[in-house]
């Protein structure tokens, strides 16, 4: 499970961090709406915990933009608003649930587990680069119609490159979005996974991933 916490109250975010660590749950924290929207857009999360009142971009705006992009990641809104109309509005704008502050961590965790137990019907999104195709929701990669088995991290790495196709992603970008906070930025784990991924999907004739010296990597179909 990987959770995105978008919360500017450090007391709340710290409490959530301690709790999720105790449950061995991977999480990222954004302290303002701008950073939160960015992570929600480029990251791959099972659920988003979203504060209603945020600096830069409000929680309401974040939900609207996420849903407008067709992203259906479950969202639990954290709010001090206790009025019935506010509760209805929170659900109407696209939140899956809400929790009134202050709240008990056990109740929040129970709501998270309940939401993640719900069956989710997703249309298969197909990402393409030349003759390479990827279906993230089906954990499937094919080349010329032939299935290519990938390990979980290899799949996550390729998906991140696909989401940023045509753009250079730095080593730090990859560490932040594919590995959890315990990833060692000084190890060669990214290089090893990148090498293994290339071996599985590329040939001398078919190249998709390009190393940009001193900058990072790029998935490109125009080269």
How would you describe this protein?
The chain has two domains: about 1-115, 3-Layer(aba) Sandwich (Rossmann fold), CATH 3.40.50; about 125-220, Winged helix-like DNA-binding domain superfamily/Winged helix DNA-binding domain (Arc Repressor Mutant, subunit A, Orthogonal Bundle). The strands form three sheets. Strands 2-1-3-4-5 form a five-stranded parallel β-sheet, sandwiched between helices. β1 (about 1-5), α1 (about 10-20) and β2 (about 25-30) form a beta-alpha-beta unit. About 40% of the residues lie in helices and about 20% in strands. The model has no long low-confidence stretch (mean pLDDT about 90). It starts with a strand and ends with a strand. With about 220 residues, it is of the alpha/beta class. It is built from eight helices and eleven strands.
**CATH H level, superfamily name of the largest domain:** Response regulator
What's the Cα radius of gyration?
19 Å
The average pLDDT value, as a whole number, equals: 88
Describe the sheet with the most strands.
5 strands, parallel
* SS content category: alpha/beta
- Helices, by number, come to 8
The sequence of SSEs as H and E is EHEHEHEHEHEEEEHHHEE
Strand fraction equals 15-25%
- Strands ordered across the widest β-sheet: 2-1-3-4-5
From the spread of the alpha carbons, the general shape counts as: elongated
Task: Return the domain count.
Answer: 2
How many runs of DSSP E, i.e. beta strands?
Answer: 11
